[in-house]
Amino acid sequence: MARRGETIELAVLGLLHEGPMHGYELRKRLNLMLGWSRVLSYGSLYPALKKMLRGALIEEVTTLPTPGVPVTRRPRIVYQVTELGTAEFTRLMSEVGPTAWEDDNFDIRFAFFGSTDMEIRLRVLEGRRTRLQERLDRVQSQLSMTQAEVDRYAAELQRHGVESVEREVRWLSDLINAERNPEQVALRPPTEQPQQQ
Amino acid sequence: MARRGETIELAVLGLLHEGPMHGYELRKRLNLMLGWSRVLSYGSLYPALKKMLRGALIEEVTTLPTPGVPVTRRPRIVYQVTELGTAEFTRLMSEVGPTAWEDDNFDIRFAFFGSTDMEIRLRVLEGRRTRLQERLDRVQSQLSMTQAEVDRYAAELQRHGVESVEREVRWLSDLINAERNPEQVALRPPTEQPQQQ
DNA sequence: GTTAGCATGTAAGGAGTTACATGATTTT
DNA sequence: AAAATCATGTAACTCCTTACATGCTAAC
């Protein structure tokens, strides 16, 4: 039950889904994709690749005659996902472990929604929404209790936090609706033009 | 130059600034305050307290006759901040190390703005804004390059990310203005009532 | 020809978690 | 009297980073 360490693994499997890649490129794409928080270092990527190689989730591509690029290339090690890896990808995407709703893990799952089916997408979106809603309820109940004695900066931080999470919940709700009614609603909710065309 | 491990230390020093507390209560207040992301565990709090005790940043309070509470209390170990700790708090608050603008570290600094002076507040706010703006610029320049080939879910994630960071930047700008013109603007920007009373 | 970036790794360590262990106090 | 929660701690482990080490290739 690989609940820990799923983050990089899932990201690599998802990216390799788009085509074979070498480590350096994986890192670049990952940092572009999840650039918001941390920058993935080689010190964690390469060992992870080795481990996945041992687990036969990925394999080396020996010859890949990319059209247009000269073949005189030595040091690059290009990986591709195996059948086992594809199965593991699906398993990880649908797994609802305790860390699956954290920011980074959710973002990775969301980024690869195109490689899954609607059932899983809905489960992930609704799970995240439920989690955020729980946090919101917890904070707001505590907020009403301790309201009087809080310093104004701490209060402003809480206000801003609540507002951000509420916004996130609305975003998730829009996405869930869009999943359920694929025809009626475009993926992007009408922020700019509130009229139907 | 304790650049790492500053997070808990700063939080503890900031909280003890409000008055003496024991470990359990520190954890509760911290989780209330920064409840958004992780929950601080005892396994990291208590060792940190021990370390700070060794460094004389905090000290045990032997007798504290809290009015109204019976004194028959044994196992609680109440800490208070020392002079050295107060100095360290100021130092950490004004330090602009590479991790100071990360979400958690920024939130902690912000939460204790009431215990610092405006100079430091402005430096922290402006530093955070600069960092976010840099990320924004980097992502948007990359976004314009790779625009065509991106999957729609990955694109929506990026769009949402950019929007969130832009919102955060605006929030910071409002706060910076409020710091610079303390009379004119209330801390909270006029969301509900745009009129002056 | 030298700087910048591509490309792959290893070793040591940091910052925290989970799980375990223990006992007192309050509530039901 | 049992259950919940208060209260303090330790040991092992995980995931990741930083710093180091190496060499190739493109650009200036």
Automatic annotation (TrEMBL), chains A, B:
InterPro entries per record: Metal_resp_DNA-bind_regulator (IPR052509), Tscrpt_reg_PadR_N (IPR005149), WH-like_DNA-bd_sf (IPR036388), WH_DNA-bd_sf (IPR036390)
Protein's recorded name: DNA-binding transcriptional regulator, PadR family
Statement: the UniProt record of this protein carries the keyword DNA-binding: yes
Keywords for the protein's UniProt record, in alphabetical order: Coiled coil, DNA-binding
Originating species: Nocardioides psychrotolerans
Regions annotated as coiled coil: 122-156
UniProt-recorded Gene Ontology molecular function terms: DNA binding
Superkingdom in the source lineage: Bacteria
Domain Transcription regulator PadR N-terminal per the UniProt entry, residue ranges: 12-90
